[in-house]
Amino acid sequence: AWANLQAAPADKILGLTVLYNKDTNPSKINLGVGAYRDNNGKPWILPSVKKAEEVLAKTEESKEYVPIVGSPKFNELIKTLLYSHDDAGKQLLKDGRVLTSQGISGTGSLRVLGEFVRTFYPTSKKVLVPNPTWANHVAILEKAGLTTEKYKYYDFKTNALDEQGMLADLAAAEPGTVVLLHACCHNPTGVDPKLEQWDKILDVISEKKLLPFLDMAYQGFGSGSPIEDLGILFKFNKAVADGKLSNFVLSQSFAKNMGLYGERVGSLSLITSGPEETVRVKSQLEKVIRPLYSSPPSHGSKLVEIILSDEAIYQQWLKDVKVMADRLIEMRALLYDKLKNTYKNPLNWDHLLNQKGMFCYTGLSEEQVKKLIDKSVYLTSDGRISIAGIYPANVDYLAKAIHEVTTN
Ligand code: LMR
């Protein structure tokens, strides 16, 4: 049956890990996948997660299926984490307008929301996505049966937000179109709109009645605090509470900020007009999820429940997030210093310091990326580097390699 089947190209991000693992060069560096590494380049199980594992080992009573949308406790805690830190969010909760569901990390949450929007959103089947965006976004949304189109986002000349281009593209959209927005730490560019730019974006969204589809995979990596990074969500909550926006949807992941990559745990939220609509929407959401994966995995979500409900462990988690965010900032500075001061690289590297989160969009060309891969430095072909893969012992090799490919 598969005799004429062509091999598919390797995944643009995860395929790099496969190449990296095969490479025998002891100096090899993996700056491909966005996965946190510690100062020795090792994966890190968060101390808060270790504590939660201990609690879970002692208290877990069953491995029974959890409900289709996840456990009621998980969903209550998600609402508290995301919607209880601002007045508008609290009001939405009080009015019964927030529906949440566990999702299979960011990807699964995006897919379920994509399926839901395609099936039930009457106005549009098109999603506007930023140019550029996470490579998997387009694939997820299109597999869910939606079409995608790019809006201007990144100014490739200045390495900053193309504010005018973005506003103009959104203003030119068909009324009611879905628009995908990264809530913080834009992947791959690390460039987020400033809070006052979000106000302008929200004005256009409101005017054109666009449906915002927020994706929040790096909550905490922008400011070092998962709560402070909700600043954008607060604006959307307020816009809904003020009647400027009728709703939005949100996907969220604990892969990065709890380091629960392989546990596949995250959430999705939908805003409704009130409790009665919430019940109806939930019933249809269950019909979307059940044939896809029946019900979500429970080990990771139980860890999340413990972390979000045990005050001491929660405080530890906030510290853990800060440790990760701070280390990324340090590595940005270290690489910048090596490039500019040790190797006297003539290019402008300010964006290394200015961009936020796990990634730096270096501006390296595809040709330069190929040359770096020849030197066993793995990064995506668009020139994105995962800062998390940098640590004190490899930064010199990395800076030297970047210097060589940008000056020869
Ligand atoms: C990334 O962009 O590297 C991460 O979101 C991991 C992934 O699944 O691509």
UniProtKB/TrEMBL annotation:
Enzymatic class: transferase
One GO-annotated biological process of the protein: L-aspartate catabolic process
This protein's name: Aspartate aminotransferase
Domain Aminotransferase class I/classII large: 27-402
Catalytic activity, as annotated: L-aspartate + 2-oxoglutarate = oxaloacetate + L-glutamate
Pfam family, one: Aminotran_1_2
Record key words, sorted: Aminotransferase, Pyridoxal phosphate, Transferase
Oligomeric form and interacting partners: Homodimer.
Note: In eukaryotes there are cytoplasmic, mitochondrial and chloroplastic isozymes.
UniProt record similarity statement: Belongs to the class-I pyridoxal-phosphate-dependent aminotransferase family.
PANTHER family named among the record's database cross-references: ASPARTATE AMINOTRANSFERASE, ASPARTATE AMINOTRANSFERASE, MITOCHONDRIAL
Molecular function as annotated in GO: L-aspartate:2-oxoglutarate aminotransferase activity; pyridoxal phosphate binding
Cofactors, names only: pyridoxal 5'-phosphate
